[in-house]
Design goal:
The chain is α/β, with parallel strands linked by helices. The chain has 13 helices and ten strands. About 40% of the residues are buried.
Length: about 350
């Protein structure tokens, strides 16, 4: 794929009151135009769509060669499957799609011969380390974690933390939900489950290591004890560009890594007692079936409630634990069973009280 011939066909967005989707258009002058939030001033030839049906049409109806799936949360599942069915190469920035339905998505992609290219920095790093390698020679994957906003605080210091405190990530500039997930380490748990599906490895061969500098984005250890790692400054433009230009590499606007200025790099074992959300993610992944769906759904609702100042920070993990404890996982669920488990977990998380 060459950037010189890229042409955006459709885009989707979300707003609080008016659901929006957009379709391709071109004015008589040849300039491409996009719908406004209100749906007004649409040039001839542009179609405005919305809701889940709109997402599916935007993902599959444009005849695009490449679809980037970057919707927040589990909302992107059906539209991603539609894009796969349409034969488009998938740039996957939505980890929840694989968390909730990895068995369906990976099988469908294999059946259609559709590549799934990871955009998350950690999975992009692993993907790059595995280029040209025999995957049968992998001993383990090591996903690095910054530790989030509260990495220098013990659990006893987390009881009264505020939303504002939690949103101050030391390394990355991200949206509110993923920044909170980084602070609880739920995000790393989702990444572990995603890596399980992307690279077809059992959970006991996927490790997480604290690395506060966020310079080493992930590592692969091979059976001969060699370790390959991908390094770079924490800048999402790099993995996004790599996924879009793969298998080519092109100049990037990101600042190059200067290891002399970076100085010493630090690594620590993961403390699951300090980060129980990560422990629960591993447990849900190993349980399989609908358990990861429940973990993800409960977490999404819990984070939203924290951001709305309805619950304290530490209640996020309590809500997830409560939802998982009440759930009996369904093995090999279909889309209807996934949606049912998702809905029940969200309802339980919304009703939770201390």
């Amino acid at each position: 794929m060459r950037s010189s011939v890229w042409r955006p066909e459709r885009a989707t967005s979300n707003c609080s009151n008016k659901p929006v989707g957009s379709g391709p258009s071109s004015s008589r002058s040849g300039r491409r135009r996009w719908p406004t939030r209100s749906g007004g001033d649409l040039p001839a030839g542009t179609k405005l769509v919305w809701g889940e049906e709109g997402l599916i049409e935007a993902a599959a109806g444009a005849g695009a060669d490449y679809v980037v799936c970057a919707l927040l949360g589990s909302l992107g599942l059906k539209s991603t499957l539609a894009a796969i069915d349409a034969g488009a190469t998938i740039g996957l920035a939505n980890k929840e799609t694989l968390v909730t339905a990895g068995h369906i998505v990976m099988r469908r992609a294999a059946e259609r011969g559709v590549p799934l290219l990871p955009i998350d920095s950690e999975h992009s790093a692993i993907f790059q380390c595995l280029n040209g390698e025999d995957r049968g020679t992998i001993r383990r994957l090591v996903i690095t974690a910054s530790g989030g906003s509260f990495r220098d605080r013990g659990r006893g210091e987390l009881a009264g933390v505020t939303v504002e405190d939690a949103l101050k990530h030391p390394n990355w500039s991200m949206g509110a939900k993923i920044t909170i997930d980084s602070a609880t380490m739920a995000n790393k748990g989702l990444e572990v489950i995603e890596a399980h599906w992307l690279f077809d490895l059992p959970y006991d061969r996927i490790d997480v290591m604290l690395h506060p500098e966020s310079i080493v984005h992930s590592m692969v250890e091979f059976v001969d004890t060699s370790v390959m790692a991908q390094l770079g400054n924490p800048d999402m433009r790099v993995p996004i560009q790599y996924a879009l230009t793969y298998p080519e590499r092109r100049p990037s606007p990101a600042s190059p890594l200067d290891l002399l200025r970076a100085g010493t790099l630090h690594f620590k074992d993961m403390d699951f007692a300090r980060y129980p959300c990560l422990k629960m993610a591993y447990e849900a992944g190993r349980a399989g079936g609908t358990a990861p769906t429940v973990f993800n759904a409960a977490n999404e609702v819990a984070v939203a409630r924290f951001l709305n100042r309805e619950i304290p920070f530490l209640a996020i993990e309590d809500i997830i634990a409560s939802a998982l404890a009440a759930h009996e996982a369904i093995p090999e669920p279909d889309l209807e069973e996934i949606a049912f488990a998702d809905g029940r977990a969200r309802d339980a998380a919304a009703r939770w009280r201390k």
